[in-house]
Each structure stands twice: as structure tokens, then as C-alpha cells.
Amino acid sequence: MAVFTCEKCGSKVETRCKPKKCPSCSEAGVMCKEGAPAAKKAPKK
């Protein structure tokens, strides 16, 4: 689960996938993932 924050109104949503639009202000394309991105694993040899 990840927390996404709206750049326009500041609303927060916890979901698996990135929302296409904000549930509060209905603005499209303004949801940003909160926190640091997940670390990548090193490839196995």
C-alpha cells in the first residue's frame, strides 16, 4: 500500500495503484506518491 497526495488540494489517499484523479477535488493527473521510492534489489548472478 502507498500513500498518494493531491498536489492541488492536499488530500491523501492510501491505495495500491496511482489514482487517475483526486477523490476530493476531481482534478486529473495531480496525485503524487508520498515518501521515498522503494529500493531496487541487486540482480542475482
Summarize model confidence as the mean pLDDT: 83
Helix content: under 10%
- Lateral arrangement of strands in the main beta sheet: 2-1-3
Report the span from N to C terminus: 30 Å
Shape: elongated
SS elements, strand count: 3
Largest sheet: 3 strands, antiparallel
Poorly predicted ranges: none
- The number of helical runs is 0
- Multimerization status: single chain
Order of helices and strands: EEE
Structure characteristics:
45 residues, mainly beta, 3-stranded antiparallel β-sheet, 3 strands
Describe this structure in words.
- With 45 residues, the protein is mainly beta.
- It has no helices and three strands.
- The chain has a three-stranded antiparallel sheet with strand order 2-1-3, with no helix packed on it.
- The model has no long low-confidence stretch (mean pLDDT 83).
List strands and helices in order, with pairings.
Blueprint: E1 2-6, E2 12-15, E3 31-33
Put the structure in a nutshell.
The chain is an all-beta fold and 45 residues long. The protein is 0% helix and 27% strand.
